[in-house]
Write a structure and sequence with these properties.
Blueprint lengths: L2 H12 L5 H13 L1 H39 L11 H35 L5 H4 E3 L2 E2 L8 H6 L13 E11 L3 E4 L9 E5 L5 E10 L4 E6 L13 E2 L9 E6 L6 E9 L9 E5 L10 E4 L3 E10 L5 E6 L1 H13 L18 H8 L3 E7 L2
Parallel strand pairs: 8-13
Antiparallel strand pairs: 1-13, 2-3, 3-4, 3-15, 4-7, 5-6, 5-15, 6-7, 9-10, 9-12, 10-11, 11-14, 12-13, 13-14
Helix pairs in contact: 1-3, 2-3, 3-4
């Protein structure tokens, strides 16, 4: 399809001008064509910014018209700029109007600058935001959790400077977890918290910065082996447009998200990652991405800052590679990755209930 015609189709879709048949056909194309999906996301952002810019321009025009009308009606008067006394009088009387006008000018300049930055080529580091969560204080637990906390659960002393947070998930029921390497970067101590609000001490077993993967181990006498894990760690590729879902900790409770695979490679054709259309926020890094059969197909680690809903996940086959590399360097580690899923055929609510107990919040102490 010609690029101009394609752009017109995108605008008609976003403006709601397509009939039901055209809309269904366009959405099918969008699912099967990652470039078209990217165009829709970026054009939606562009139109939104232009609408906001137009509103500010109209506000400035109304402000000018109001000032001109008041002047014509004699309610305000022009002041000779050579008279310093009259200038002071004008400033004292109309400094609010001047401040508003200055604010509008500043906002307009920022918008134009933002649009220029948003649609200019950027270095990859500025396009990508790692999804680990900054924490300024140790979050208070909910009332229901507070009632359950006993001496066993108090692993973190009050006032402990938790700096970053993320997500991890069990890959071996003996307490081995996988997360993103950038989540635990520079950590001096690590704690993981389960869905019930219970904290456990954990240690870093292995880190691969190139693959952005890290393996943690829960080293806490209060941790109980949950037995076999409900999901498997996939090795094979996932099909384009396949529905996926994720669980993670972008806030102090577990959060569910769903979307679909929009590209088989990551940013700039990175073959170690997938591109996924899904909502993700800081704190989702390290969270599992699963398909409808309950197979882990990826690990969330970043999102594109210049497009809404464009997220990247490291392919799950890299977990197998990291574990193999770790065993070669340290034969004392005996990790057996989960290879079977018992979630196939279940509805999503039941799948999530079985998975959520295996997904942990990561809390990082730097000093």
């Amino acid at each position: 399809m010609d690029h101009i015609l394609l752009l017109e189709a995108v605008e008609r879709y976003l403006r709601g001008e397509m009939n039901d048949e055209e809309k269904r056909s366009f959405e099918d194309m969008r699912k099967s064509n990652p470039e078209l999906d990217q165009m829709v996301v970026e054009h939606h952002f562009f139109l939104g910014e232009m609408d906001r810019y137009g509103e500010i321009k109209r506000f400035k025009a109304n402000l000018y018209d109001t000032h001109h009308t008041l002047q014509e009606n004699g309610e305000i008067k022009e002041v000779n700029s050579s008279s310093s006394g009259k200038i002071a009088y004008l400033w004292n009387r109309y400094r609010r109007i001047v401040a508003v006008a200055a604010s509008i000018a500043g906002i307009t300049a920022l918008l134009i600058s933002g649009l220029t930055v948003a649609f200019s080529p950027k270095a990859p580091i500025r396009d990508i935001e790692e999804l680990r969560r900054k924490v300024t204080y140790l979050e208070k637990k909910t009332n229901s959790q507070s009632l359950q906390i006993n001496d066993v659960r108090k692993k973190i002393e009050p006032g402990t400077p938790i700096k970053f947070g993320g997500t991890s998930f069990l890959v071996d029921s003996k307490g081995y977890l996988v997360t993103s390497a950038h989540v635990i970067q520079d950590a001096t101590r690590i704690f993981v918290q389960n869905n019930d609000g219970q904290d456990f001490k954990a240690s870093i077993i292995y880190t691969d910065l190139e693959k952005d993967l890290a393996i943690l181990h829960i080293e806490d006498e209060d941790f109980k082996n949950p037995g076999s894990l409900p999901y498997s760690i996939g090795r094979s590729s996932t099909e384009l447009a396949e529905p996926v879902f994720t669980l993670g900790y972008p806030k102090d409770e577990i959060v569910y998200g769903e979307g679909y695979l929009s590209a088989k490679t990551g940013m700039k054709g990175d073959t170690m990652a997938y591109q996924i259309s899904i909502s993700a926020n800081p704190g989702n890094s390290g969270g599992p991405v699963l398909n409808k059969n309950g197979e882990v197909i990826g690990i969330l680690n970043a999102r594109q800052t210049t497009a809404e809903g464009v997220v990247f996940a490291i392919k799950s086959k890299n977990i197998h590679r990291v574990v193999d590399e770790m065993k070669k360097k340290d034969s004392s580690q005996h990790i057996k990755l989960s290879s079977n899923t018992n979630l196939k055929g279940m509805d999503r609510v039941q799948q999530v209930k079985k998975i959520e107990d295996c997904v942990y919040m990561v809390k990082v102490v730097l000093k």
